Amino acid sequence: MSKIKVVHYINQFFAGIGGEEFADHKPEIKDGVVGPGMAFAASFGESAEIVSTIICGDSYFNENLEQAKKTILDMLKDIKPDIFIAGPAFNAGRYGVACGTICDAVKQELQIPVLTGMYEENPGAEMFKDKLYIIATKDSAAGMRSAVPPMATLALKLAKGEKIGASKEEGYMPGLTRVNFFEEQRGSKRAVDMLLSKMAGKPFVTEYPMPDFDRVEPNHAIKDMKSVTLAIVTSGGIVPKGNPDRIESSSASKFGEYDITGVDNLTADTFETAHGGYDPVYANTDADRVLPVDVLRDFEREGIIGKLHNKYYATVGNGTSTKNSKNYAAEIAQRLKNDNVQAVILTST
Questions:
Q1: How is the chain split into domains, by residue range?
Q2: Which CATH class is domain 4-170?
Q3: pLDDT digit string (tens) for 91-122?
Q4: Are 156 and 4 a contacting pair, CB within 8 Å?
Q5: What span, in angstroms and rounded, lies between the C-alpha atoms of 331 and 349?
Q6: CA angle, 86 then 51 then 146, to 5°
Q7: Using the 8-state DSSP alphabet, how is residue 90 labeled?
Q8: Are the C-beta atoms of residues 87 and 106 closer than 8 Å to each other?
Q9: Long-range contacts: 160-164, Cβ < 8 Å, 24+?
Q10: 220: buried, middle or exposed (CB in 10 Å: 19+, 13-18, 0-12)?
Q11: Which of 26, 280, 301, 326 lies deepest, with the highest CB count within 10 Å?
Q12: Measured between alpha carbons, how far is 252 from 236 in angstroms, rounded to an integer?
């Protein structure tokens, strides 16, 4: 019996090429196993073989989406694998989005079984868990040892066309499919047992987990705007021309702090958007449409606000993980407090 043919997709970091400075690496294909493919090969044993590894930089993939997909799909057409595996990406946002995007393209256009793995808060998981089998992993590459075995097991079942069990049995994220099964106890008894456990302060597991919404209580209204220093913070990606901090167009790994002392208008010659999730034409023509410096300068002169803070903060919200967003918010808030800013306008796209 011939081995199952596997093609493995990884980014520039896991391929050993380099980190962020090599994120523009164009798609390339290598024979056999590279990097984490060794762990998969060990888990597969004699059942499957990684015949090729496709490598692509995270920035290149996300900033050249259609070309990257076309190139990789063309590579796969020649190989005709039995299954395509991407990652695992853990909590690397751009990597996760790339894994999900290319798996979805392979599944839809080539009808080849696909599988990827990532942390539950990875933006790629939110985007694709209702379309793909995604094995839930830990948040860093330190979880590689625990991530690979369930991925390898599910990959073999997918490649063989075997029946796939429920998410809690197979380890993939719920959302893609529902599987009917018979419980030993009737629903009324299970519900009462859960209620009694809850009332007694004992642990219990709900059969219908609810999303955990992070709610923030609004602050008190500002009574007198004429005396405040007001700042602008944006997730719309408005940056000085040339994007000096190289903020990524998707799954941003940083934010920027920019001085607007003496700036009354964000012109096409001086500012632009780094955002990859909306049509940039109007923002590049007049960045004030996303970051309203011109209007706030008018308010400043008219005495409607005390003054506009001399610095603004920007990042890209497109695909950026909740964890990173919270970290950016905490750092930006502390800097604003240190500068005695009393009010902030948050702008998006």
A1: 4-170, 225-347
A2: alpha beta
A3: 888 899 999 999 999 999 999 999 999 998 88
A4: yes
A5: 22
A6: 45
A7: T
A8: no
A9: 160/4, 164/133
A10: exposed
A11: 280
A12: 11
